[in-house]
Amino acid sequence: MLEFFATLHWGAVFQIIIIDILLGGDNAVVIALACRNLPPSQRVRGVLWGTAGAIVLRVVLIAFAVVLLDVPLLKFTGGLLLLWIGVRLLAPAHDAHENVKPADKLLSAIKTIIVADAVMSLDNVVAIAGAAEAAEQQHRLVLVIFGLVVSIPLIVWGSQLILKLLDRFPFIVLFGAALLGWIAGGLMVNDPAGDRWPILDTPAAEYGMSIAGALFVVIVGYLLKRRNTRRAAV
């Protein structure tokens, strides 16, 4: 054990922790949005279990980061999935949950957190894996897990804070959903399948797709929410 710490690359440890802190904001938003409709008594459980599941899945993603990011259409498909998650978080199908038990709602929130985090992490895991490359081979996975564990309290605290803000300022939901659309657009335009079109490999194309993704989530989410409201009134 002493030898392990003696040979540990502390610079890589510091880099991974910083990366996790910087990237934790997106996760906190997703967790808060997914748990906002849970009863207050279940919110903490939703946050904790959703975060735990997302962290475990991220470790797996990091182990296969380079291979995953080179698979054509994976990022594009993930972007489409994230667009739909953003729309559904903005306009949840309330009528579909009228007879759903609280435990089922909790499980649904946890699933949403894990799936959304996995999609959003496709790019982020590369930064963490890159930082771990500076360390010895036998230390890399341990460093990744350590960095993620250190970031857990920050993500949980951040999501709890955002949940309180959502209760007080509901319009923040719109911002959170738009953020998911922005990330989805960036994922889709950076898919390896688009490498044959140089025009897609430009800042203008990336920003354009990110803006389009945010607008798509906001507009479609608004229309679905209005439709759900009309149905509920009837």
TrEMBL record:
<feature type="transmembrane region" description="Helical">
    <location>
        <begin position="169"/>
        <end position="187"/>
    </location>
</feature>
<keyword id="KW-0472">Membrane</keyword>
<dbReference type="InterPro" id="IPR022301">
    <property type="entry name" value="Integral_membrane_YjbE"/>
</dbReference>
<dbReference type="InterPro" id="IPR005496">
    <property type="entry name" value="Integral_membrane_TerC"/>
</dbReference>
<keyword id="KW-1133">Transmembrane helix</keyword>
<feature type="transmembrane region" description="Helical">
    <location>
        <begin position="47"/>
        <end position="67"/>
    </location>
</feature>
<feature type="transmembrane region" description="Helical">
    <location>
        <begin position="138"/>
        <end position="157"/>
    </location>
</feature>
<protein>
    <submittedName>
        <fullName>Integral membrane protein, YjbE family</fullName>
    </submittedName>
</protein>
<feature type="transmembrane region" description="Helical">
    <location>
        <begin position="207"/>
        <end position="224"/>
    </location>
</feature>
<dbReference type="Pfam" id="PF03741">
    <property type="entry name" value="TerC"/>
</dbReference>
<keyword id="KW-0812">Transmembrane</keyword>
<dbReference type="GO" id="GO:0016020">
    <property type="term" value="C:membrane"/>
</dbReference>
<comment type="similarity">
    <text>Belongs to the TerC family.</text>
</comment>
<feature type="transmembrane region" description="Helical">
    <location>
        <begin position="12"/>
        <end position="35"/>
    </location>
</feature>
